[in-house]
Amino acid sequence: MDKNIITLGAKIELAKRRFFFYCQLKAPKFYKDDRPFLIELCDTLQSFYEAQDEQVLIVNMPPRHGKSRTASLFVEWMFGKNQQEKVMTGSYNDTLSTTFAKSVRNSIQEEKADILKPVFSDVFPGVRVKRGDGSMSLWSLEGGYNNYLATSPGGTATGFGASIMIIDDLIKSAKEAYNENVLEGHWDWFTNTMLSRLEEGGKIIIIMTRWASGDLAGKAQEHFKEQGIKVKHINMKAVQSDGSMLCSEILSKKSYDMKVKAMGEDIASANYQQEPIDLKGCLYSSFKTYIQLPKDDKGNLLFTRISSYSDTADEGSDYLCNIIYGEYNKEAYILDIYYTKDPMETTEEETARRLYQNSVNVSTIESNNGGRGFARAVERILREKFGSNKTKIKWFHQSQNKNARILSNATWVMDHIYYPVNWRDRWPEYYKAMTKYQREGKNKNDDAPDATTGVAEAFNKCSGGISVLKPKERR
């Protein structure tokens, strides 16, 4: 028997057992032994698939390093191992999702033309696409039913149940990465459409270049961690910590440096180093914290005044943000933050309670959209429920451009506002809003930076856009 045929037979047998060998059999020029990152990727996918206690796998890799190609081959290999699997893949758009599906289907259907050229049926004989059921985006295997569905955000998954879900690169540009509404849309699609199709015991694989901290990979990691679900994570960078390249054949250092100069450091860091683009473009680069409040030798607080600034919710999607802070040496020490979407009937009383509890001297409330009524209600609740007139309530109309105010006061916020060292745990939603706010790009909410800017403006009275409206004296 020809030695080449014997060698091929051995490779086919190995391909049944190990996914990397299957990839190597189908594309030997790409899946080479001297590319350890591909071996790691393939072996991780296989071990995840075979593990009984692992549900979520996230793979972050640079472009052109075989993410989508490996995912496509992995679907083939899984169908070869188990014809009852039901795989659903989600891609950036219908064109890409259909291309992915067509690649898998065509590979399974490929007929042998050369005795020395391996095809899918050599490794998994008897596994075939069902006749008359070979559409590009939804098809079945013989002996199965609806084994494969390719979809995308905006596409449908109605009536399809999946045992394996694969999400492949939903973001394609920096413009999308900067747009929180796009990122939120991806998450809504994933949770409302895709997750609802996952069968009991099903597995989720998210394969993508890391773009933003709030992208699907970032949100999924955080969400499943909160749910107590173990997340397996592969994070590969084009440039390694020692300066070497992940694979110089695919991307050399010279080529990488050229791309960085052309596309900019922030986009290159996201594309090739898996460093979220929004963390590069955040308005606030750092925040000051305190462990103890300023006190004298006898333990008395040194605040000259305790103040609060409140930005009421303009619309249903907005947050009320009330910040209480102590003033000392022209610095603001944050004592309490109330950041919520609760309705006015709840926030009026809760704000009053916090003002009373923290012995606030002066409370300033924006009156642009219902703020004046809110201020009067808080003042009334303080007087009637808490029997207190300690807090002077002031409201004002904000006439300056919001974005300009936030940008121009950002440095003061970073240099002169002090948060408790555990502020991330105490006010997680406010923390996220501040640490992820973009200098450029579309931010979903600006209520936290807006109210925090108000604190800064209270210390810098030269701001000409604030017009204080004093309450009329009651007779």
For the largest beta sheet, what order do the strands appear in spatially? 3-4-5-2-6-7-1-8
Instruction: Give the radius of gyration.
Output: 29 Å
Global structural class: alpha/beta
CATH superfamily of the largest domain: P-loop containing nucleotide triphosphate hydrolases
Q: Report, as a whole number of angstroms, the end-to-end distance.
A: 111 Å
The counted number of beta strands is 16
Q: Estimate what percentage of residues fall within beta strands.
A: 15-25%
- Mean pLDDT, to the nearest integer, reads 90
Protein name: Terminase
Organism: Sporanaerobium hydrogeniformans
Structure characterization notes:
It comes from Sporanaerobium hydrogeniformans. This is Terminase. This protein is an alpha/beta fold and 475 residues long. The chain folds into two domains: 271 residues, Rossmann fold; 182 residues, 2-Layer Sandwich (Nucleotidyltransferase, domain 5). The protein has 18 helices and 16 strands. It has an eight-stranded mixed β-sheet, with helices on both faces. An eight-stranded mixed β-sheet has the order 9-15-12-11-10-13-14-16, with helices on both faces. Strand 3 and strand 4 form a beta hairpin. Helix 1 packs across helix 2 and helix 10 crosses helix 11. It is elongated and about 95 Å long.
Question: What's the short version?
Answer:
It comes from Sporanaerobium hydrogeniformans. This protein is an alpha/beta fold and 475 residues long.
